[in-house]
Design goal:
Blueprint: H1 2-15, E1 26-27, E2 33-40, E3 50-58, E4 68-73, H2 81-87, H3 89-92, H4 95-100, E5 101-106, H5 132-153, H6 162-175, E6 181-186, H7 188-199, E7 204-210, H8 215-219, H9 231-234, H10 237-255, H11 266-279, H12 287-297, H13 304-316, H14 325-328, H15 334-343, H16 352-363, H17 367-372, E8 401-408, H18 414-423, E9 427-435, H19 445-457, E10 466-467
């Protein structure tokens, strides 16, 4: 009984709102307003060390009918909410949403202009390793990243979990004067929304999860084999990307001359091209380069025609002398790994990753290894957030949640979105019949209108609702 009481008291302490100081908004170009908030580094000791969060606000265009604040997160983890609101919010959110809400983005702890994770420069790595020599070098670089991150960031590295970002968001909710939270989270931002909903179920006004990430898969998995599986494979993104590739190739064939890669059987042509790349680079492009580029572009349908042209050029030998190295090679995303590795369960041995990558590639060719190696650093990561939230994710909320997912989303598995709909305490899934990853890349007026209705009025689409108005990606 004493253990139970202690657990309840600890949970209550971690889910209570720290004191919220009013935000001092100042003009910061283009009609936007900026502010800085201070929040506890450690919610176990809310009066202790503080960290800063950078915020930006796009004020409601109809202040007389303003409902409140719409908080938003663009995903990652590690993407800048400040940059998203500054550069994209006017295009992503409907005029109706922007009329009724102040749209507020913030850089989560460890990210961007907030108190950031900085681990120092490192040589660029391939998109993912191919072959034993690259595997060993990739694992060594991942371990070195962890050591450098610990050296440069101190205690911050132990307090970066999604749960702590949710606690920060509750402080911000109180600071803007909203009694309950209105929020839309895109991609990884959907995990933030689901976490908030389960930490603060009675403070939910409206939470939309767009491009749904499976919170159970992310944190721990559901079965005994999941303990031996890297988190980046547990969420099912490799299956999602593989399915999106097949949709890309099938619709390319149907498009005929409008798709530059439509000659013959595009599926067989793609397999032959990838087999050539496996054997040796084609011009400046390696196998891993092309896999990584395809993984990213499959979630962005406006880029499909130019991608088909590039594939045809590589197939036919009409290739540039140099590749865009930024698209194919990159250093690790320090904040992404610092957040994810601090809270997810992963195998403790670096040698698991090559095996997991090969198994995943067997079932989801090309993309299994690409997704597996995202989490390589977690094998040796030197920090763990003791206040992470690993579930359960089924608490009944004050208002139901809206889930939105395209059937052929290349990152957020549609099948997992269906599972999440059943897992959450109260949720409804809207299906977009097509491809693309999140509202920022999908042109569906039907989905935009459904999200607007929900955020403004709390009205959910009908059970099983489908939006089938996405623009043909091959249309001229």
């Amino acid at each position: 009984m004493r253990i139970l009481i202690a657990t309840v008291l600890a949970t209550a302490a971690l889910t209570s709102t720290a004191e919220a100081a009013p935000l001092a908004w100042t003009a910061c170009d283009d009609g936007l307003q900026c502010a800085t908030a201070q929040v506890p580094l450690d919610y176990d000791t809310p009066s202790g060390s503080k960290i800063e969060l950078a915020l930006i606000k796009l004020p409601a265009t109809d202040p007389a009918h303003r409902i409140g604040t719409l908080f938003t997160n663009p995903g990652g983890p590690g993407n800048s909410g400040v940059a998203f609101v500054r550069d994209e919010a006017r295009d992503v959110y409907t005029a109706g949403v922007r009329a009724r809400f102040d749209v507020v983005g913030f850089d989560p702890r460890g990210v961007g202009a907030s108190t950031p994770v900085r681990c120092g420069e490192a040589p660029p790595q391939p998109a993912f390793p191919v072959g034993r020599e690259q595997e060993q070098a990739f694992a060594a670089a991942a371990a070195d990243l962890g050591r450098r991150c610990r050296t440069h960031n101190g205690a911050l590295l132990d307090h970066l979990s999604t749960a702590n970002v949710a606690r920060d968001m509750d402080v911000l909710r109180a600071a803007v004067g909203d009694p309950k939270l209105t929020f839309i989270g895109h991609s990884y931002g959907s995990l933030l929304g689901a976490t908030y909903a389960n930490l603060f179920p009675q403070r939910v006004r409206a939470i939309a999860l767009d491009g749904v990430l499976d919170p159970v898969g992310w944190m721990t998995g559901r079965g005994p084999l999941d303990a031996a599986t890297p988190f980046s494979l547990r969420v099912g993104s490799q299956q999602a990307t593989s399915r999106a590739l097949r949709y890309f190739l099938d619709t390319c064939k149907q498009a005929g001359p409008r798709c530059a890669f439509s000659d013959g059987d595009p599926v067989e042509e793609f397999d032959r091209l990838m087999a050539r790349l496996r054997a040796e680079p084609v011009g400046p492009f390696t196998y891993a380069d092309v896999v990584n580029i395809m993984r990213d572009v499959l979630g962005f349908t406006p880029g499909w025609p130019s991608t088909a042209e590039a594939l045809a050029a590589v197939r036919d030998g009409n290739i540039p002398a140099e590749k865009n190295r930024a698209a194919a090679e990159a250093g690790p995303d320090d904040a992404k790994l610092a957040i994810a590795c601090s809270e997810t369960a992963n195998p403790p041995f670096a040698g698991v990753w090559p095996l997991a990558a090969r198994v995943a590639d067997h079932f989801t060719p090309y993309f299994g290894a690409s997704w597996a190696y995202i989490s390589q650093a977690c094998a040796t990561w030197p920090a763990r957030d003791a206040d992470r939230y690993a579930g359960p994710f089924d608490r009944k909320t004050a208002a139901p949640l809206l889930l939105v997912n395209s059937r052929f989303d290349a990152a957020s598995s549609y099948e997992r979105a269906q599972v999440v709909e059943r897992t959450l305490g109260s949720a409804r899934l809207l299906t977009i019949e097509g491809a693309g990853h999140t509202q920022a890349t999908i042109d569906s007026p039907c989905a935009d209108a459904a999200i607007e209705r929900y955020l403004i009025s709390g009205v959910l689409p009908a059970p099983g609702a489908v939006c089938a108005d996405q623009r043909d990606p091959w249309a001229e």
